[in-house]
Design goal:
about 550 residues; alpha/beta; FAD/NAD(P)-binding domain; five-stranded parallel sheet; 17 helices; globular; disordered N terminus; binds NADP nicotinamide-adenine-dinucleotide phosphate
Length: about 550
């Protein structure tokens, strides 16, 4: 579709993606007086929250914390209605922000970036789209999100299936009715665990095809208490300040005791309180060594396993739902509403596709190695090519025409998760090697966007045209990311954090596990030292 005659549009910066990251990046760069264009595949703003419209879609970070902090008036004015925000409510919020900041006039919707090539002679990025447009810009900011490229396993015969198929991450805009239908859900990660209880209420029969059970903790979602909101808003600046220096981007203090250093009854009480409070964070911060010591972790994991046994009435189903293959928290802990209890419903059946995998689809359903299932609808809750998938879908080329795909053939390499050696003036918001998915991502996004904008302002002030990570700084950072990950239990899980969910993807622990606060300090220190580890060009 590339039209070589089309005019090249000259810009200061191209931003790819109009989710939380791209929207704020546009606002900040405009504030610097830059001419910016955002390119977005969706028809509207929202990023992951634009695409993930499946029934039950909800964030696992609390509403009051899962929103921008850069605009004190916005955070005071906006009224969240529930403890955990639903997808429609987050989208309404982002729509409101786009209106408030008048963002849409600089966003091109329904358009995908296909390539971004660095022109060494001109010191500019040439960015092309599937609509045949070409942009030339000094800076290119990848605000592509960590979970944007969906993954559907290539099951034999899937195209022959005559029923309806859906992927949670590409859900239709119109409501989908499952009333009276025989539905199959494949996958039991966060998406599957959210969609299952809602679809179970409509479907005549629901089969949940599970390969690996996950830990899930109840959200205890509900309407927000106006007094709580008032109180929270009166302390917003303090909450935000705490979140910025915290480990996970939420203002929760970690208990510095070892889980093994307290009497079992005391530990039990603490875990009960965390379970009653709901969400993953209270459990994760209960003791300092839960993510570092297997024995300590086992005390919390066993607590959740016991809860599963208490909730699920059929012991065989309860056992199948019980995770034993990874320490608690080393895969993203799911946060649910009635997930385990849903398996007590007479119309819901758990199918173990670990012992008898899905072999093929047929015109009327699917077959596992053990049985055939007649289905009207199949929901793929099979996840994403996370963290690198979307970046590598774009043909990104840096100095000497080197492609990012080649450079990252053995796994992603970045400096601070923000910059790639050999790719000047390219910034990756929440890129691999930064806390991103291990945090309240809005906090991490704001930090990256602000750091990037400050860096661009500094370049201008100092009269530099380019900035890029040095190969040495990048190498050291990659080694540091690995070293820190190896002090934790995270690498023990076959998770999408390590690329293990995609056959053939290099196994590298991609996020930075050192914590949001310490990571921010490192990034600020780099800037203070004149962008240590970067090379600038006139
Ligand atoms: P996911 O965690 O990668 O889960 C994918 C599921 O599909 C897994 O259960 C996986 O089983 C299964 N699967 C994949 N291939 C299969 C096959 N060939 N046969 C059978 N099962 C197969 O993906 P997700 O649930 O979409 O979640 C991804 C991330 O998005 C989450 O971890 C979270 O960070 C984010 N998310 C957040 C929320 C929230 O805020 N509440 C909601 C949804 C998503 P295996 O484990 O055996 O591979």
């Amino acid at each position: 579709m590339n039209d070589s005659n089309a005019a090249v549009r000259e810009l200061d910066a191209v931003v790819v993606g109009a989710g939380f990251s791209g929207m704020y990046m546009l606002h900040k760069l405009r504030g610097l007086g830059l001419k910016v264009r955002v390119i977005e595949a969706g028809e509207n703003v929202g990023g992951t929250w634009y695409w993930n419209r499946y029934p039950g879609a909800r964030c696992d970070v609390m509403s009051m914390e899962y929103c921008y902090s850069f605009d004190p008036q916005l955070e005071q004015e906006w009224e969240w209605t529930e403890r955990y925000p639903s997808q429609p409510e987050i989208l309404r919020y982002l729509d409101h922000v786009a209106d408030r900041l008048d963002l849409r006039r600089d966003i091109t919707f329904r358009t995908r970036v296909t390539s971004a090539h660095y022109d060494e002679g001109a010191n500019r990025w040439t960015v092309t789209t599937d609509a045949g447009e070409t942009f030339s810009a000094r800076f290119c900011v990848m605000a592509t999100g960590c979970l944007s490229t969906t993954r559907k396993p290539p099951f034999e015969g899937v195209d022959a299936f005559r029923g309806r198929t859906f992927h949670t991450g590409e859900w239709p805009h119109e409501p989908v009715d499952f009333t009276g239908r025989r539905v199959g859900v494949i996958g039991t990660g966060s998406s599957g665990i959210q969609v299952v209880p809602v679809v179970a209420q409509q479907a005549a029969k629901l089969h949940v095809f599970q390969r690996t059970p996950n830990f899930s903790i109840p959200a205890h979602n509900g309407p927000l208490d106006p007094d709580f909101v008032k109180q929270f808003k009166s302390r917003y600046p303090a909450h935000r300040a705490e979140a910025r220096v915290s480990l996970f981007g939420v203002p929760w203090a970690i208990d510095m005791n070892s889980a093994l250093g307290v009497p079992p009854e005391e530990r039990q009480r603490k875990y009960e309180a965390a379970w009653a409070q709901g969400g993953a964070t209270p459990m994760l911060v209960a003791y300092v060594d839960l993510l570092a010591n297997e024995q300590a972790n086992e005390t919390a994991a066993e607590f959740v396993r016991q809860k599963i046994r208490e909730i699920v009435k059929d012991p065989k189903t309860a056992e199948l739902l019980t995770p034993r293959d990874h320490p608690l928290g080393t895969k993203r802990i799911c946060v649910d509403t009635d997930y385990y209890a849903t398996f007590n419903r007479p119309n819901v059946e758990l199918v173990d596709v670990r012992s008898a995998p899905i072999v093929r689809f047929t015109a009327t359903g699917l077959e596992t190695a053990a049985a055939a299932y007649e289905l009207d609808d199949v929901i793929f809750a099979t996840g994403y090519d996370a963290m690198t998938g979307t970046l590598l879908r774009i043909d990104v080329r840096g100095r000497g025409g080197v492609s990012l795909r080649d450079k990252w053939a053995d796994g992603p390499k970045t400096y601070l998760g923000l910059s790639v050696a050999g790719f000047p003036n390219l910034f990756t918001i929440t890129g691999p090697g930064s806390p991103s998915v291990l945090s309240n991502v809005v906090v991490s996004i704001e930090q990256h966007v602000e750091w990037t904008a400050d860096c661009i302002a500094w370049l201008r002030q100092e009269g530099y045209a380019t900035i890029e990570a040095t190969p040495e700084a990048e190498e050291k950072w990659v080694a540091h990311v690995n070293e820190v990950a190896d002090t934790t239990l995270f690498p023990k899980a076959n998770s999408w954090y390590t690329g293990a969910n995609i056959p053939g993807k290099p196994r590298v622990f991609m996020p930075y596990v050192g914590g949001v606060g310490p990571y921010r300090e490192i990034c600020d220190g780099v800037a203070k030292k004149g962008y240590e580890g970067f090379r600038v060009g006139a």
